[in-house]
């Protein structure tokens, strides 16, 4: 059994209340007693109960971070931004991975709330968060990342998705491409809707017909295998004259799968087909990949999310916060275009 305040009090022959006050630097305890208590506590290896202390002080100095896919290199970069900002602010992070599963997501959020976290940062499995009933009925300060949740008292940290895709489209069109495919990641996702909007806006501005046959979405996982399978379907469903000459993907993992499928079919990249991703994960800049991509400021998103959450916690309901904070993406041109 761990060392408690009671065991320290017994060792010193003082009351429980005296030890508690001394450890909390209470002015009613004289300096000599404080030194004795702290010395004995260190000698016995005493560790304060953060949750118990939180109940007294109304804070636990802990933040929950819930992400949907820890295998996607996008999210570890976000988590690094959150964690480093948390260290600066003297907070600790509880990290949970949901694997895009709403039930697991709800379970983790409830578990974190039971641990008396001070606030929550999360990327939900979808923009429909009605399954998170306990969270929505609570007053827990929450910030969303990479998903726009249009509810009062919540802030979303997102990138200008439409602007990012429009930049990529304008670049491809300037290079002479007209048949450009868009591989999305679920029609219901806000980010996907905005990226598709940017795709269509660019086509309209350049008087190029929008053709539904070039627009498709993966159904479940937004990973390399999904990109590989979908690109093979596109190759098999189009004759050579109808094939797109360029593809824009919802994320870099899908784009890596697209590249793999194209190379196995004998396509040259970018001569036969150009490929653009979205996110700029670490793999994208590797010499053997060199993927052109729309870079999201991942670390900054995490950092801003934590800083915004801390401000929400400290100001309570005194200050009104923006419903969303929108960051700018950057087109990084590499060898696949």
From TrEMBL:
Keywords, sorted A to Z = DNA-binding, Transcription, Transcription regulation
Give the residues annotated as coiled coil.
none
InterPro entries given in the database record? HTH_LacI, Lambda_DNA-bd_dom_sf, Peripla_BP/Lac1_sug-bd_dom, Peripla_BP_I
Report the residue ranges that make up the HTH lacI-type domain in this protein. 3-57
Q: List the CDD domains hit by this protein, alphabetically.
A: HTH_LacI, PBP1_LacI_sugar_binding-like
GO molecular function (one): DNA-binding transcription factor activity
Which PANTHER family does this one have? Answer: HTH-TYPE TRANSCRIPTIONAL REGULATOR GALS (PTHR30146:SF109), LACI-RELATED TRANSCRIPTIONAL REPRESSOR (PTHR30146)
- Protein name per the record: LacI family transcriptional regulator
Lineage here is: Bacteria, Bacillati, Bacillota, Clostridia, Halanaerobiales
């Amino acid at each position: 059994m761990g060392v408690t305040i009671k065991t320290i009090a017994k060792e010193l022959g003082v009351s429980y209340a005296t030890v508690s006050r001394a450890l909390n630097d209470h002015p009613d305890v004289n300096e000599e007693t404080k030194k004795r208590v702290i010395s004995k506590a260190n000698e016995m290896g005493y560790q304060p109960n953060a949750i118990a202390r939180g109940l007294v002080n109304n804070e636990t100095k802990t933040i929950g971070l819930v992400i949907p896919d820890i295998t996607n290199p996008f999210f570890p970069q976000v988590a690094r931004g959150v964690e480093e900002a948390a260290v600066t602010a003297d907070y600790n992070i509880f990290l949970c991975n949901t694997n895009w599963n709403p039930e697991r997501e709800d379970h983790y959020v409830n578990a974190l709330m039971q641990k008396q976290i001070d606030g929550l940062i999360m990327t939900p499995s979808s923009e429909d968060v009605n399954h998170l009933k306990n969270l929505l009925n609570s007053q827990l300060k929450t910030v969303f990342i990479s998903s726009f949740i249009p509810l009062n008292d919540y802030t979303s940290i997102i990138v200008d998705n439409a602007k990012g895709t429009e930049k990529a489209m304008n670049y491809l069109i300037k290079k002479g491409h007209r048949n450009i495919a868009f591989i999305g990641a679920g029609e219901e996702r806000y980010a996907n809707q905005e990226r598709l909007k940017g795709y269509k806006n660019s086509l309209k501005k350049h008087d190029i017909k929008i053709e539904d046959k070039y627009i498709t979405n993966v159904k479940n996982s937004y990973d390399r295998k999904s990109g590989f399978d979908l690109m093979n379907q596109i190759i098999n469903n189009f004759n050579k004259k109808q094939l797109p000459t360029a593809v824009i993907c919802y994320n870099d993992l899908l784009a890596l799968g697209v590249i793999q499928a194209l190379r196995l079919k004998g396509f040259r990249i970018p001569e036969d087909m150009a490929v653009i991703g979205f996110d700029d994960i670490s793999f994208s800049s590797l010499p053997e990949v060199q993927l052109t991509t729309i870079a999201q400021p991942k670390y900054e998103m995490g950092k801003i999310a934590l800083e915004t959450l801390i401000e929400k916690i400290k100001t309570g309901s005194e200050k009104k916060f923006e419903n969303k904070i929108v960051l700018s993406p950057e087109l990084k041109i590499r060898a696949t275009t």
